[in-house]
Structures are given as C-alpha cells and as structure tokens.
Amino acid sequence: MARFELENQKSGHNSSDLVKAVTCNPAAILGWGQYLGSLKPGAFADLLVVGGTGADPYDHLIDATEQDLRLVVVHGIPRYGIKNIMLRIHSDTQNDLETIVIGEEERSLYLYASGSSLNDLTFEQSRETLTNAMADLPAFLLSTKEENNRLKAMGIRVEQKFRIVLDNELVAPKTRTFDLSAMAAKAEVDWSKIVKSVELDRPEVDSPSYYERLKEQVNIDDGLR
Asked: Buried (b) or exposed (e) across 18-39, using 16+ Cβ within 10 A?
C-alpha cells in the first residue's frame, strides 16, 4: 500500500527507501541504531527471511506474502518458520515447537521465554480463549467481576496482571499535582453499552474473511483493490 501511494504521488522514493523506513531509519532516530535495524556485529540478530531470489531484493521483500515467509528470528532466537527449518535449528530440548497452519502449510512457533507466566499457554489456546470471551463480551465481563469478588471474599488480593506501558509517556515534574478522582471519573466506562460480541481476526491473510473485509474499507483507492 505504501509503495502504491508513493508511486501515485510520484515521490521519487523506491522500495529500498520503504524498507529503510521500517528498519534502520527509525532505529537511528530513536538512538538504537547500534542494536536494531541492520545486520552487523554487536546488533541484535533480528531476521525476517523470505523465499526466492532474483530481481530487486527490496521489491522482492515487499512483494512477499505470508506463504513466502521462511523464518523469523528475534534477538537470535528462531521464533517462527517453515517446520523443517525450525526443527533443524531448534535448540531448546525442554520446550517443544508448536505447529500451526498458514495457507494450508505447516509452520512452527517457539514462544517460550524464560520467566514468562504465559509459557504454558499455547498459541491455539490463546486464540480459543479470546474467541470464547469475545463471542459474549457481557457474559465475560460478568464472570470476571464475579471471580474477582469471589477472590476478594476469600481475602485474596486481586492484582492487575496486565497493563499497557507506553515508552513515550512524559514524566510529570515533582511539583505538579493531579486531581486523580476527577481523572478517574472521566475515565469511567459505561459497561451497559458494551457491544455483544466481536469476531476475532484470524492471524493470517489467507482466510475467507480477509478480502471481504478489505472490500468494505472505504479509505482504499479503487486502483489498489
């Protein structure tokens, strides 16, 4: 889409510029260029490998689909890829690979992370949990409240296990004060207006609903469709 729009605007930017815009350039802007955005000694080994050779490598990368994806390595650890490749390079004898199907082809996942509380949760289990919860959101909200109240009645402290931490939040000066009660009131949610259900998006493009949803997007140029 980005390449299509650049060509429409006759910007003069090419595929190499686009790839740099999502790799080495933002890393350099954030001051992380020593570790991220390029392959070099001392940097994190973050790799995305696609099949095929020939033509311009940057065009080839942008043209690649999920079926062309062969391997994903994050910080030197193979996390996703074609099953036979992952089996050859998987070195963790204590934790197995998880097999999933993408476009009728088997792929392997390795999601284990030392110290994570989610290591016993598989990708398929997480999808099932989300699908069930999103199929009846009011019921999920009610069951969550009931469970929290039950734990409180037993004297068990209910802790917030997950939260979003933004790395660009401003640190307030020590002399600045906030009216937290007013802020909480504004942030109060009217749960009676919660939507009944939301369909969980599939993780792959090669699904019956993907292109149907794409057709419904009014902000996509007809030439791109």
From this structure: bbbeebbeebeeeeebeebbee
- Residue partners of 54: CB distance under 8 A and separation at least 6: 60
**What is the pTM for the complete model shown?**
0.75
User: Helix 137-153 crosses helix 123-135 at what angle (to 10 degrees)?
Assistant: 100
Q: Where are the domains of the chain?
A: 2-118
Write the single-letter amino acid at 150: R
Contact partners, residue 104, CB within 8 Å, separation at least 6: 206
CA-CA distance, 43 to 75, in Å (whole number)? Answer: 9
Question: Rounded CA gap, 82 and 101, in Å?
Answer: 10
Report the distance separating Cα 74 and Cα 86, nearest Å: 13
Under a CB-based contact definition with an 8 Å cutoff, are residues 110 and 96 in contact? Answer: no
Q: Are 178 and 172 in contact (CB under 8 A)?
A: yes
List, for residues 46-104, the tens digit of each pLDDT value.
Answer: 999 999 887 899 999 999 989 999 999 999 999 999 999 999 999 999 999 999 988 78
* Other C-beta atoms lying within 10 Å of the C-beta of residue 67: 16
- Cβ proximity of 155 and 149 under 8 Å: no
Q: How many CB atoms lie within 10 A of CB 79?
A: 17
